[in-house]
Amino acid sequence: MNAPDIRVEKGHAEPEEVAAITAVLLARAAARPSEPTAHRSRPRAGWRRLEREGGFRAPHSWR
Question: Tens digit of pLDDT per residue, the chain (63 long)?
Fold first, then answer.
């Protein structure tokens, strides 16, 4: 249960390099946005994908 938290996949990283990337990742994880952002929903497309539509639609229906 003594596995390292960060593993170098290719090449060799010096301890200073591992410490630098660890500091950057921890700072990024700890950063909080200055203002809470509103729920960012994706805009709905104006077109429909017919394979996701269910069944028959009457020609006079709006949806």
Answer: 577 777 888 899 898 998 999 999 899 888 877 666 666 677 776 677 767 776 777 777 765
Structure confidence at residue 2 (pLDDT) = 74
Cα 35–chain centre separation = 19
Q: What Rg do the C-alpha atoms of the chain give, in angstroms?
A: 25
3-state secondary structure the chain: CCCCCCCCCCCCCCHHHHHHHHHHHHHHHHCCCCCCCCCCCCCCCCCCCHHHCCCCCCCCCCC
**HSE-up of residue 46 (Cα within 13 Å, Cβ side):** 0
Instruction: Please report where in the chains the tokens 């429909």 appear, as a residue.
Output: 48
